[in-house]
Amino acid sequence: MADTRFSFSQDTLKSIAEDILKFARKRGASACEVDVSEGFGQSITVRRDEVDTIEYNRDKGIGVTVYDGQKRGYASTSDFSKDALKATVDAAVSIARFTAPDPAAGLPDEALLARDFPDFDLYHPWKISTEEAIELARRCEQAAFAVSPEIRNSDGASVSLQESHFISANSLGFMGGYASSRHYLSCSVIAGEGDDMQRDDWYTTKRDPSELANAEEIGHFAARRALARLGARQVATCEVPVLFEAPLAAGLIGAFVHAVSGGALYRKSSFLLDSLGKQVFPSHIQISERPHLAKAFASSPFDDDGVATRDREVIIDGVLQGYFLSTYSARKLGMQSTGNAGGSHNLLVKPGQHDLEGLIRQMDRGLLVTELLGHGVNYVTGDYSRGAAGFWIENGQIQYPVHEITIAGNLKDILMGIREIGSDVLVRGSKHCGSILVDRMTVAGA
Fold first, then answer.
1. Under DSSP, is residue 364 helix (H, G, I), strand (E, B) or coil?
2. For residues 97 and 176, is the Cβ–Cβ distance under 8 A?
3. Is 207 helix (H, G, I), strand (E, B) or coil?
4. Quick one: 442 exposed, middle or buried, by C-beta within 10 A (0-12, 13-18, 19+)?
5. 84-112: pLDDT as tens digits
6. Alpha-carbon separation of residue 230 from 25, 57, 135, 156, 369 (angstroms)
7. Which of helix, strand or coil describes residue 403?
């Protein structure tokens, strides 16, 4: 399948992994795990109808973790020769022998390892030439300029393809891997001039290039978003409902995931400590984890530890049903891995009945946020403060664009204050979520 697109076949990657496990046994390691991967990509940007950049990448790598009892050592290399493999194992073994024991270190429980490897249709090569990619980017940018003479400049339109494959294996007999792809098309333009210039963008991303949105549609939409922001002003400081547009709403769900993930929990650096079985969202919120969806960005039969993934309900009626745990973090907490080493898998936030326009009408008066700036999130306390831009809403309708404001609150209150999830689900990563309407936040402006 992937062999003709890559320099190494899946069988070759498996052979390398097997060799490393043999070398580790010979060096006296009590256990070993290895990841062997290869990837390549191409990215092209056209700016003002001229080719701005053409970038190619081709990478390969091997990561080796060995255990000497409860002592762990890690080493890596990009050299696939036998001598380099042996030297990498030797380096990992040496590191392990001089490392302090860690009771949580070690391979997963054998019973949790994945044994079935269904195909989730994650690999779709994009056989597009450099010339074709340039033309596609040109069409996208030209479509943006054609919308209005007020579109006066461009940050460019980009076409990118990325393809990779890997094998993971360990000394308990686990070995699995697959190929995957991710492609995107984007456009970013600038409207207006002088003191009133506004930038906005839009992009489409899919595993299967045939499912990417039309290039002209992306250009048109990026231009309309930039034009809509002309004449932006500040608003007076107030407390009002805040509506997060779908691309930003996923970030709120991401903050929740971070707070209930093993690393934050065992380090006690989370605002949701000891929240299992407790209400963390309103009762109308339901969140499911679905690791086995076809073509989805976070689908996999196993996590980074080789633990089998499974469907589960993370939030039922607003109540937290389970954390996101790797083998290591689970042991630190005295719990069992949830198959989340490496992160969450396809979180589906149950949508409500209203699209973005419907949520604006529901909000009546408040702020629609379409851009967030900065990283003002304290995951220990939950304090949240971000620069923002968007639109002021009165009587259920957009009145004018706003910028140079800050939205603030505490994530505990924000999550519990979610009034509704939109039906306008936009999938660009592992979070499948529509726009989110929050009952009340502080908007700091003029």
1. coil
2. no
3. coil
4. middle
5. 999 999 999 999 999 999 999 999 999 99
6. 65, 38, 29, 20, 15
7. strand
Give the tens place of pLDDT for each residue, 141-192: 999 999 999 999 999 999 999 999 999 999 999 999 999 999 999 999 999 9
Confidence (pTM): 0.91
Q: How are beta strands 347-349 and 431-433 bridged, if at all?
A: parallel
Q: What angle do CA 345, 350, 352 make, to 5 degrees?
A: 150
Burial class (CB in 10 A: 0-12, 13-18, 19+), 397: exposed
3-state secondary structure of 224: helix
Beta pairing partners, 432: 348, 427
Per DSSP bridges, beta strands 287-289 and 312-316 are: antiparallel
Sort 57 into a burial class: Cβ within 10 Å, 0-12 / 13-18 / 19+. exposed
Polymer length of the chain: 446
Q: Which segments within 291-396 are labelled E, that is strand? A: 312-316, 319-320, 347-349, 366-373, 383-394
Residue pair 419/284 in contact by the 8 Å Cβ criterion: no
- Are the C-beta atoms of 306 and 176 separated by less than 8 Å? yes
